[in-house]
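Narrative progress, year one. The postdoctoral researcher (J.K.) led the effort to move from monomer predictions toward full complexes, under supervision of the PI. The following entry was the first complex the group processed end to end, covering 1304 residues in total.
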Amino acid sequence: MKQLLLIPLGSFVLHQAQAQSPIRQVDPVNFSQVQITDSFWKPKLEKVATVTIPVCIEQSEVKTRRIDNFERAARKKGEKHEGMYYDDSDVYKALEAIAYSLKNHPDPAVEKKADEWIDKIAAAQEPDGYLNTYYTLTGLDKRWTDMEKHEDYCAGHLIEAAIAYYNTTGKRKLLDVAIRFTDHIDRQFRIPNKPWVTGHQEIELALVKLYRTTQDKKYLLLADWLLQQRGHGHGVGKIWDDWKSPQYCQDDLPVADQREIKGHAVRAMYLYTGIADVAAVNNNPAYLPAMKSIWEDVVYRNMYITGGIGSSAHNEGFTTDYDLPNETAYCETCASVGMVFWNQRMNLLTGDAKYMDVLERSLYNGALDGLSLSGNRFFYANPLASHGKYGRSEWFGTACCPSNISRLIASLGDYIYAKTDDAVWVNLFVGSNTTIPLKKGTIKISQETKYPWDGNVTIRVSPDRKTKHKLMVRIPGWAQDEPVPGETYFYLRSAKTNFTLTVNGQPADYTMQHGYAAIDRVWKKGDVVQLDLPMEVRRVAASDSVKADKNRVALQRGPLVYCVEHPDNNGKVSNILLTDDLQFSTSFDPSLLNGVVKVQCEAPVVKAGADGISIQTVKEKITAIPYYAWANRGEGEMQVWMLRKLSNVVLQ
Amino acid sequence: MKQLLLIPLGSFVLHQAQAQSPIRQVDPVNFSQVQITDSFWKPKLEKVATVTIPVCIEQSEVKTRRIDNFERAARKKGEKHEGMYYDDSDVYKALEAIAYSLKNHPDPAVEKKADEWIDKIAAAQEPDGYLNTYYTLTGLDKRWTDMEKHEDYCAGHLIEAAIAYYNTTGKRKLLDVAIRFTDHIDRQFRIPNKPWVTGHQEIELALVKLYRTTQDKKYLLLADWLLQQRGHGHGVGKIWDDWKSPQYCQDDLPVADQREIKGHAVRAMYLYTGIADVAAVNNNPAYLPAMKSIWEDVVYRNMYITGGIGSSAHNEGFTTDYDLPNETAYCETCASVGMVFWNQRMNLLTGDAKYMDVLERSLYNGALDGLSLSGNRFFYANPLASHGKYGRSEWFGTACCPSNISRLIASLGDYIYAKTDDAVWVNLFVGSNTTIPLKKGTIKISQETKYPWDGNVTIRVSPDRKTKHKLMVRIPGWAQDEPVPGETYFYLRSAKTNFTLTVNGQPADYTMQHGYAAIDRVWKKGDVVQLDLPMEVRRVAASDSVKADKNRVALQRGPLVYCVEHPDNNGKVSNILLTDDLQFSTSFDPSLLNGVVKVQCEAPVVKAGADGISIQTVKEKITAIPYYAWANRGEGEMQVWMLRKLSNVVLQ
């Protein structure tokens, strides 16, 4: 994560990190440098700022009173801890979301609230730097005895919140708290080399952020030390009880020896993000093959078409290859958020657009689905079908998802652009602008687009002086008939690869490089690049290995996966056939679900007669909506994967 | 349990117990006094003797090697325990089944095998009487520290096996072992009054059997002492981890204060059998209201039409009232066996036939379903619907069910007859004969019947001399339009209550007393009573409170619940409508499923066209079979509750 601030900080200096490793190909452009103007995303960022973050604040202060634990810990009067042992992390994640949001949506009242919280958090810190209200209130003698108790996980979220808040506001009080706690952990484990396996990974990726923020190498060393702890039988504690085994938190093998995805999905995503982060700096040659193999195992055999992962609620994670049931799909919101993190890191490591394709899929579908259009209702699980008994919640006992989706949306600016010495990379198509310093000069870049509703993207490139450099424009895999790299999903009928790219109105001279159209030319102020992506409705089928999708088809348009939902289809969708001959029409409907492109067709629908005995197939107009927008109009039937022809009829 | 043997036994005497309590109304007639000649049941007892028991022996000795633990424990050479900590109980239950079976099917080789096992069990006993191979092999210092470890449960099954083997063979070696272990438990807990809550109840009912066998009152006192331990917060140990709470094993309230059914179904059944057993002797006035209230909660609101209980696999037990899903019904075989035990005790306590109605329902449906027709395949769960992915198993890791259904079938003789001072009670209609001593003389009684295929039962009553006494003939609730007492299930169209009862060809002079036709007359040798029960097909509906059965109908004929299964209906049953206008025909088919009465009708069936789009309802001949006989011809669809008219169509 890049910093543009230069502030003295004790014995070291915060500065814009320039560390380039032999592995790391690309550097991201930080959210704090990106202005978002997009017609699709800006309202969502506003909703997070004006609705979701106030909900997180109200939950933290009034309804679930998670702030109280910090106050009680600070008073040191032997009061009780309330809630779960990991609840501190919800406060940190809410703070992190606030930090990102303040960049896009300055709000003095919210900033004041954040400062108040930070004072309370700082007051709860122990003299030795330790900070965890659960153990401060239940007995510090038991701290660091149970890997499952999320002490390090909470520390990781504290670090991330502190860095984000520092990046937006320049205020470093929370950063100092985080540094003191991290130094405590370093003294507790790495320096004496006392084994410790993080029960719920998270701190590893946070430590690399802290290294990049402070340039203090010990945080990188601690991150890597924690990674190296895994897979040697050090992991013990409550987590191994009952059905939880070492593979539940990816502790069954040393990380460099891991080749398959296993266990708890969010833990896995955070771990692999941390590994990719460490590899980007220390160039450990063993990490990249592990990452690539596990990534293929996830994306080729264990990912839903929505980019969601972790099919089972039982272990909140992975089961067997191709076991992707739709109605019971767990697909935790946090796991899709984790897919965004990990795939960004893999893209930065390799410069390959296939990781951005997956990031975009998880972002626009599996993750975005986690937040209601109203901004105040949430999904923990994001199934791909419902018989009508599933709806959004106001909050959760374990409330990781609401603040996680909030911080992801608020930090969207982190994922749009990237840079190398001589190139600007456009990864996501989001109306926005930024200024990127390359070796030879500074480039202003902006995008205007109605994406994902429309495939036209106008990219304006304005260098401060005429310079030769590359513009790397990601051409999504779906625009090249590669919906997802791998074996699981494929287009039923090949769409013509008909994206077009022009520079100042003339066909662009480009070469394709790992999924990017690389335009290598001398750029001058006011240059305009036009990208036009093919936005026809694509019919997607799944490999025969995915039993749940047998004889079924899903619809995708651009990056969006579609679904059919009850309110648009006479209250019922499980009686619809999407036969292979259907013709689809599309139109933007500004009154539907805050404005979406809907997909329609005349499809065969099975209807029972009023006599309760007769039955027939009739043609009816069917409407499909973007998957992310379902469950905003009450509970009812929804399906992503629709039958192609009648096979089995079950009467209910 | 009555004993007819008179054998000196140390300081006390085994004799025919005459203890009559103010509560207990009726005494059972012991299996060892009953010869079974029935055309329905005798082949099943033979199958258990010739197939199931050899399977249990092979599993115990060769496949799961549960006998080895006893040998290792006897050697005391520090060898390892293998398997689960409760595996001793499977050996004891197999022995108990052998004991009952030897009565009906003498087999010197099997008896020799049992004697060998008994020698090994006796050799594994500790000098202080303690007997549990798990703790002997893993460390006796930890015995009696964890209520979940089933030490008392295993003791209970040891006691039951010992008594059964003694009753059949007169051999008392195992009984002596059981007595020594029981005395150890009594010294360990009751005498010092040291709190102990049985984690899996079972020993309580076994202790009452031991009291009735030995007439030593301390065993009754120990049983009641254990009951009184519950509900005072004494229960601790692993069992309270995670999702298991005190109510899981009915330890949330003192037993006399309990009014609702909760928790693990088998634990509950064994507990309530034990309470009813103790109440029958000690006349604790607080126990009967608890029993009656809980029984109503089970039968009125938490029992399947098959007599199965415990709808959830999660806790192997009860959830909320009327939560009775069909496909995911757990209905453990052992829980139906437990329903037979408990309802027998309730019937003996009260003399009310409604308990026998439930016993018969559980016996002929939920329990009998647990054993394949071949005798060597088993069900642990007995669902009421299958989409085709459920089949019988050869054995289970936790193998409670196979030996439990074996011992139940082999001990059928325990449930047919009962007696009071001046009456003989006929509870089940099973071809059989016995001799019952009443106060005024001895009565020979026999039954001849093709029940449950036919409603005619010939009862021959032959007193040794002319005497006036009562013959109490149970008239099943279903024969009086009361399929189950209570709120859950009811007949859609009232069947005429047209049972007939004659004595020597003349209409009998009887009064109805709590579900029994009481014929009070002077009986003489050769008297013949004819009962004719109405056997038409009954359509049963469920209360609206049972959501899973909404708009559905089940078929029942006599005591048998029917189902439709794939092999009889073109491979598919979830597309059938059992509309209200259907006419049913019945016929005995000797070639079907070892001979059953099948129920047939012309019913509407929904069929998809070959084009994969069109669909229509056609009339087809549908065949229903007794529920207990399903899953003997491969995996496929099965349903007990059939749709009455089309409501929801789900395409798959």
